[in-house]
Specification:
Largest sheet: none
Low-confidence stretches: 1-29, 31-36
Distance between the termini: 72 Å
Number of strands: 0
Number of helices: 7
Strand content: under 5%
Radius of gyration: 26 Å
Oligomer: single chain
Structural class: mainly alpha
Mean pLDDT: 82
Length: about 190
């Protein structure tokens, strides 16, 4: 005759199912709603929290968003980040390290607005794109190191804020056309954060 052995975990699960103090009704009455099983609370990552904070800050500062025809927009303090985007980043509840990483990425995105693709030769355009790509890769690596996985959500939000007019989007597409067919190195930046 074989002995049936129950593991302590299985025994605990069986016994906990027999608890008579349960709030779940034992009869099925169609007039009494059955409580839904509780779903485990999703763990919110830092990256998700920062993306949400950017969106909330945008909703508070949306009227100040620069929608002029000027590609560069206004940068009164000369830090390389458009003032309206600077205001949105500053309005987040993120700590200073995260805000610095966000500003570094916003600056790398904004730097493309300073390149006049129409006046550059093909070789000059490709060299400008290599520099922009290097800065962008470095700023993305900083975001990844600071926010962890899911950092791309915050990056996409900053892209949407930066290229928020038809003129800015068309300028971005000109740069995208220059980059077409080019190869870029990814990663390898030590101390990616400024």
């Amino acid at each position: 005759m074989k002995r049936l052995t129950l593991s302590p975990l299985l025994l605990f699960l069986i016994l906990s199912g027999c608890n008579s103090d349960s709030d779940t009704p034992t009869t099925t009455n169609p007039n009494i709603p059955t409580p839904s099983p509780s779903t485990p609370t999703e763990m919110v990552t830092l990256a998700q929290s920062v993306k949400k904070s950017l969106e909330v800050s945008y909703s508070h500062h949306e009227p100040q968003l620069d929608r002029t025809d000027n590609l560069e927009g206004t940068d009164e303090n000369g830090n390389g980040v458009r003032d309206d985007i600077d205001l949105i980043i500053s309005g987040t509840d993120a700590d200073e390290t995260v805000k610095k990483a966000l500003k570094q990425h916003a600056k790398s995105l904004q730097s493309e607005m300073n390149v006049d693709w129409d006046t550059l030769s093909e070789e000059q355009s490709k060299e400008a794109m290599r520099q922009l790509s290097n800065n962008s890769t470095r700023s993305l690596q900083c975001l990844m190191e600071t926010l962890g996985s899911g950092f791309s959500g915050a990056s996409r939000t900053l892209q949407a804020l930066t290229f928020n007019t038809k003129e800015r989007t068309m300028h971005y597409l000109k740069g995208d056309n220059v980059a077409n067919g080019m190869a870029f190195s990814v990663g390898g930046h030590e101390n990616a954060c400024d």
